[in-house]
Structure formats: C-alpha cells, structure tokens
Amino acid sequence: MSTLRTRFLAFALPLVLLSSGCGGAPADEPPLAGAMIGGPFELVDEAGKTVRWADFDGKYRIIYFGYTYCPDVCPLDVQRMMQGFARFKQARPQLAAQVQPIFVTIDPARDTPEKVGEFAAAFSDDLLGLTGTPAQVDAAAKAFGVYYAKGQDAGGNSYLMDHSRTAFLMGRDGQPIALLPVDEGAEQVAAELEKWVA
Fold it and tell me: Residue 81: which domain range?
C-alpha cells in the first residue's frame, strides 16, 4: 500500500497546496476546492435500483471506494469513517441528516448488490453500499481518481484488490471539500465533518 499512498499523495498534495497558498488557507476555504475530483456516475444499490451521483444533489456526501472481501484496510477505514459520522450525528443530528455516506466497491465481479448491502449495513444503517457492472464501477473510480487493480488469483475466485485508500467529503453541489482522516480515527473524522458541514 505504500506505493499507492505515494501515488495518491503525489496527486492530492499539489491540489491541497495550490488551494492553501503560502500563508495557509483561510478557515472557510476547503482544502480540495477546485480539484478535479468527482463527477457523474450510475451504479446500483442493494436492491438493484439504479443510483446516480445527481440523486444526492443538495446533500453532502462521504464516499469511500473499497471491496467487501478486503481482509483489513477497508473494514478498518469504513469503521472509523462511520464511527466518526456517528459522533457527528449525535452532536449535530440536523446537519448529519444532510450527509449521505457511500461505499462503492471496486470489485464488482464478487461484490453483488446483496453483498455490498450486507457490508454497508454491518457498519451503519446510514451507509449506502453501491456496485455495478465493471464499466460502471470503472467510470465512478476514474471520476474520483481512484486507483485499483486485481491481484493474482489464488484459485477459487480468491484474490486481493490493490487500491487507493481515501474517504472524500463532497459538497451539496458534488464538488470536493476535503479528505477525511480515516487513518487517524473516529474523533478526527468527526472533527473534519464539524469543520466543513454547515
């Protein structure tokens, strides 16, 4: 994962620096303001119903790309992400109602609608799990600059997925606001939501 992290930081850090300037960003300037992250997609939920990015217009969105068979990173990240959201929801329920957390699989071959639904529900009733055809998933991942690749198959459809590890906070208009620090813990995620969701 270190190579992936380096790749993503090489992509994301200049965007953050550009938006902050030499003297640091003002408190009201999102770190990802103006970054080319996000865009239209069409996927399906646990019931097989079509879900489009535009369906969330007017809401903030938290979006994480991973896969349900991930043995470690994805479950930990999603757990911290949703624990942070739960803290924010407890403190600011009216604002939290205007935020939609989303999990998008990058392994559509195994992650059926039912599977992503079960995975999402294991963390929170607020988390929406999405999948789709390989082409639909690829289009969504590319819109967010998410890297992923299938690892070597050990037989019996057993393989790992190599992927970037990022939770994006997006605004009501679908524009990028910030990266949520899922690697730092729930408290830090909640603090970041408190800072930007208004």
Answer: 37-196
